[in-house]
Amino acid sequence: MLCVFLATFATAETPTSDADSEVYIAPPDISLTTARLLPQYTLREEIYGVQTLHDELVGRRPYEGMFDDVEFKEPATGADITVFWLLQALDVYTTLEATGYRCVVEVNPLLPTKPTFEEIVLLKMVPHLFWDIEDMQAVDLATVNAITGLIVANNVDVASSAKRICP
Question: Is the predicted pLDDT of residue 49 greater than 80, yes or no?
């Protein structure tokens, strides 16, 4: 019986076909084995990689919340800039039209009571010495356009009232 067992055992070790000889079993990874000995090591490190181990050791994601207080704003579009220049031209025109009446005076303290075209244009160009309209944010230019639009509407209202009161 012992001879039969040994003979069976010996024939089991010899390959019977070419497919059986191509099976490869990798040796155990020594770094994985030693990592399991570290107290910080968990199975998640094996699955998710080094970042997960870092998060567990540090306690948070390194860039989480770093840019929460930074606001990214859109630059002004070509349409916004066109509206800006159109409103500036309308402001100059309506100011000259309204101050042309004898009962209307300019209330801007930087201008005389009856400003000329050159004085108004010079005042309009002074801010452009310090900032470029192309560098403005869309929301800031929209605010400037809204204020200038209200000024133009006021100038038109004053001019139409002056036309009735003091022709």
Answer: no
- Cα(107)–Cα(98) distance, rounded to whole angstroms? 12
C-beta of residue 95 within 8 angstroms of C-beta of residue 88:
no
The Cα–Cα gap between 59 and 68 comes to 19
Tell me the Cα Rg of the chain. 41
Domain map (residue ranges) of the chain? 25-70, 78-165
Q: Which residues of 3-17 are buried (b: 16+ CB within 10 A; e: fewer)?
A: eeeeeeeeeeeeeee
Largest CA distance in the chain: 135
- CA torsion 102-107-82-140 (nearest 10°) is -170
Q: Buried b / exposed e across 45-58, counting CB within 10 Å, b at 16+?
A: beeeeeeebeeeee
- In this structure, of 49-63, 80-94, 146-160, the range with the lowest mean pLDDT score is 49-63
What is the model's pLDDT at position 11? 37
- Taking the C-alpha atoms of residue 31 and residue 50, their distance in angstroms, rounded to an integer, is 13
pLDDT digits (tens, 9 = 90+) for 61-70: 656 666 677 7
DSSP, res 37 = T
Q: Tens digits of per-residue pLDDT, 25-43? A: 656 555 555 555 555 555 5
